[in-house]
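Worked example 2:
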Amino acid sequence: MFILYAVLIGLVVGFALGGRGSGLAELRFRFAWLAVAGFAAQVVIFSAPLSDRIGDFGAPLYVASTGLVFAVLLVNARIPGLAIVAVGAASNLAAIVANGGYMPASAGALVEAGKLPAAGYSNSTVLADPLLAPLTDIFALPRWLPFHNVFSIGDLLIGLGIGLAIVLAMRRRAPTGQEPTAQAPTEHEPTGQTRPTAG
């Protein structure tokens, strides 16, 4: 849920600093549909009833979808803030791959978040001795927050990068249009006057 909170905080800070929403529309995020497909795949495999039936296919699908999102982030790393998101995604991907396609979660963090280990395939699985333990889900959002859950240092970096990317995009100076050219005033001969005639 870090992404949701990161987006909301980024928008609030962006507007508070005088940013404009149209700046987000000017971002050129390449292959966005691939990133959406990767996130959508994770929503599907972690949701019942598929999470209860996916079995051995869950781990490779999780790794593949996370790798797909990471690849899209690398392509778009030139966008300010997304390099931090890519580092966070790399951290999560490393933990997932090292632990056989699972993101281990600390039992203490799950208790703090008021969560129970899922019965089916889950992205937060308790392991006795996980590899790369500092990169796993060892933190927890407070229970009073909506959508509270456990999270990793990678998730924290992803949220930070997304929030920063939104603020910087909103604060970008609007493209300057072509200035209208001033028309030279035309001189009109005064009316209602007669020219003097030679006498």
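The radius of gyration is 28 Å. The chain has one domain: 2-171.
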